[in-house]
Write a structure and sequence with these properties.
It is a single chain. By secondary structure, the chain is an all-beta fold. About 0% of the residues lie in helices and about 40% in strands. A three-stranded antiparallel β-sheet has the order 4-1-6, with no helix packed on it.
């Protein structure tokens, strides 16, 4: 099976790596069809090997994991996650 490494980076509102976050990848096409993954890692970054194909990413950044309704300090708004996949054969080519 052809696969790639997917890296998600979750950034908090202050621009630093998120302490509390959830990310889910769901495969839509190709060898990834119906694959469900929950990449986790330290410092807001998670890496997971995924089958080749199309995916959708759902990600959330939380201030208080005990109460998701609580916000945090205001700051610049930034995208909560970035997804990048690279083939082991071509490390400089984005997915």
């Amino acid at each position: 099976m052809d696969s790639k490494v997917a890296t998600t980076t979750s950034i908090g509102r202050g621009g630093k790596p998120a302490e509390f976050y959830d990310s889910y990848l769901y495969g839509l096409s190709g060898q990834a069809r119906d694959v469900w993954l929950n990449p986790t890692g330290d410092g807001g970054t998670a890496k997971v090997r995924v089958p080749r194909g199309g995916y959708t990413l759902n990600s959330g950044v939380y201030i208080n994991p005990e109460d998701y309704t609580k916000g945090g300090p205001s700051g610049p708004r930034r995208p909560p996650a970035r997804l990048c996949c690279r083939s082991p054969r071509s490390a400089s080519r984005p997915m």
